[in-house]
Write a structure and sequence with these properties.
CATH topology of the largest domain: Nucleotidyltransferase, domain 5
Distance between the termini: 79 Å
Number of domains: 4
Structural class: alpha+beta
Strand order of the largest sheet: 3-2-1-4-5
Shape: globular
Mean pLDDT: 83
Helix content: 25-40%
Strand content: 15-25%
Number of strands: 17
Number of helices: 18
CATH superfamily of the largest domain: Ribonuclease H-like superfamily/Ribonuclease H
Radius of gyration: 31 Å
């Protein structure tokens, strides 16, 4: 065993007794780095441990030791770390090294670069020799660099060190990397003290935050809304035995949402399924990082898949469980949208509806056909084709020269004229119907007018455009209607128990009320009237938090075609009763 290297004569300060609640300035920190055999999961073994004790923003003691692995080292990992097989064979076993590491960690804060890797490797090693993990608070210098050194665009230890003025003396040996990590920590320590007074606050400040929609990322740990939960390194992923799993026997074989919680009742993962029991069990066949902390599961039943989708989306936004990640959409739908806040809006095709003041048409099945529809509309009404950024031009673009664009890029166009053209184009999808009939009728009217004026070439051009648009509409699946155009009552069935229905009152594209279909017509009428009273003042204005739910409801109804009843300003009681009776049969 290599002896500890005490390179500083300064006596380390006494350990604080308070742990997480202790003052940040008075706390002791242990920068740790490990080298491994390069294997994954339970095959990962330590080959070296390095640690540097810090306190008061200064380095104090250093510790270094090789660790003997059970399996032979691959040649590639020997070249990468410089630890040869002979060095590993002569190293002390984990039973001699890890108790010393545990003693050093007690009462101190663990600091590491990419802490989840180092802590995960240490946890596995501690578990193999049945030594309890001391559960220290964990601070990651990568998280610190993101927070306090944002100009360091690369997050490797050497890059971060260079960004904060630290000159590394080497790499890929445990003590060298631990000392570099310690110096990076000390360089950023004053900035962290400006935002956190205690260790607990420092952990919360560095906790990962939820990122924007569309980027794949691990969700932030959270309990109830506003709960600033400290981050912990995730345990290694391993299957849990039946005795270790939460009791799933009470879960129903029905649609709904299930919630896995930890020992303190904080949500770890929110999921939905048409069979809650089967789906909840499947998480333990291929466990994720959060499954090792799941102690209890509860559920909220719904009568339909759509109810489960809506409830799941709302609970994830409210709780932000760490097990839920923003995944890639796979329903194949797109939306034709226009952001009305721009001076000269453009028609664009994207997978998501737009938030803010906007018009969203869809969902549409088939991106290529939707793009062609947007191009046909832009040419027909003289709208811009050049994307969101409009570059000032001295001469019209090719579309402008062909008369297919009003050329606002020349700087002499009245914005009101452009907006009237845009409103005319979007109005074709706000009248209701959802089949594109208004667009066909508009083209037929233009063609008839050109023929009446004996502009036969123009009429022929419009005839060819009409044929082309009809083909595009035939290829498009989904709903050719603005999402806010109709208020409607949607009934979604139970997947197996057909008499059971969920009712959704969709007003201006939003689900303003939903739940089990009322048993009597009087209750249904009252809830319908209350839902219509919640219509927003400007239905075109969509809050960012509403976008996901609008997409979920629109895509589900386009795919499943459930019974729907258009709702006007006044409730027709007879029509409502007839609709429910027909849907319940």
């Amino acid at each position: 065993m290599l002896p500890p290297l005490a390179t500083a004569t300064v006596t380390a300060p006494a350990r604080p007794a308070g742990g997480r609640a202790s003052g940040l300035v008075e706390a002791e920190f242990l920068a740790v780095d490990v080298e491994t055999n390069g294997r994954a999961g339970d095959d990962c073994e330590l080959t070296e441990v390095g640690a540097v004790l810090m306190g008061g923003g200064e380095l104090h003691e250093r510790f270094e030791s090789l660790v003997r692995p059970a399996a032979a080292l691959a040649r590639g990992i020997q070249r990468f770390t410089g630890i040869t097989q002979a060095m590993a064979d002569g190293a002390p076993p984990p039973e001699e090294v890890l108790p010393r590491v545990a003693e050093m960690l007690r009462g101190r804060v663990l600091v590491a670069h990419s802490a989840s890797f180092d802590v995960g490797a240490l946890r596995r090693a501690f578990r193999r020799i049945d030594v309890p993990w001391p559960e220290p608070p964990v601070l990651c210098t990568i998280a610190m660099s993101r927070r306090f050194a944002p100009l360091a665009t690369r997050r490797s230890l050497a890059e971060v060190a260079a960004a904060v003025g630290v000159d590394p003396e080497g790499a890929h040996r445990a003590l060298v990397d631990a000392e570099t990590c310690a110096r990076v920590f000390c360089a950023l320590f004053p900035r962290m003290c400006a935002e956190a007074a205690t260790v607990d606050e420092a952990v919360a400040v560095l906790a990962p935050r939820r990122r924007t929609r569309g980027r794949r990322t691990r969700g932030r740990a959270a309990g109830t809304p506003g709960d600033a939960r400290p981050t912990r390194a995730v345990d290694e992923v391993r299957p849990r035995t039946r005795d270790e799993r939460p009791d799933l026997s009470a879960l129903p074989d029905d649609p709904g949402v299930y919630v896995f919680r930890d020992e303190r009742g904080r949500p770890l993962y929110v999921g939905k399924s048409v069979s809650v029991r089967s789906r909840a069990r499947s998480h333990f066949c291929r466990p994720a990082g959060w499954t090792g902390h799941a102690e209890v599961v509860d559920y909220r039943p719904t009568r339909s898949e759509l109810g489960a989708l809506v409830l799941e989306n709302r609970l994830i936004k409210e709780w932000r469980p760490r097990g839920n990640v923003v995944g890639k959409r796979a329903d194949g739908f797109v939306f034709l949208r226009a952001r009305l806040e721009a001076p000269y809006p453009v028609l664009e095709v994207t997978p998501e509806p737009a938030s803010g003041r906007a018009v969203n048409v869809g969902p549409l099945r088939g991106r290529a056909a939707a793009v062609e529809l947007a191009d046909q509309l832009s040419s027909l009404f003289g709208l811009r084709h050049c994307g969101r950024t409009m570059r000032r031009r001295d001469f019209p673009s090719a579309y402008g020269q062909m008369g297919r664009c009003l050329s606002p890029c020349l700087g002499d166009l009245d914005p009101n004229l452009y907006r009237r053209r845009l409103d005319e184009a979007l109005g074709l999808f706000e009248e209701g119907g959802g089949s594109g009939a208004a667009l066909i009728e508009h083209l037929e009217s233009l063609m008839s007018g050109a023929a009446a004026e004996r502009r036969y070439e123009r009429a022929e051009v419009l005839r060819r455009r009409l044929d082309r648009v009809r083909g595009v509409l035939d290829r498009l699946g989904g709903l050719l209607e603005a999402t806010h155009a109709r208020s409607r009552l949607v009934l979604a069935r139970h997947p197996t128990k057909q008499p059971l229905l969920d009712a959704f009152w969709v007003v201006a594209g939003r689900v303003v009320d939903w739940g089990p279909l009322p048993d009597d017509v009087g209750s249904l009428v009252r809830r319908t009237e209350a839902a219509l009273a919640r219509r927003p003042g400007d239905p075109r204005v969509i809050r960012p938090e509403e976008v996901d739910e609008i997409r979920i409801v629109a895509a589900w109804t386009a795919t499943h075609g459930p019974p729907q009843l258009a709702l006007g300003d006044q409730v027709d009681v007879a029509e409502l009763a007839e609709f429910v009776a027909a849907a319940s049969d």
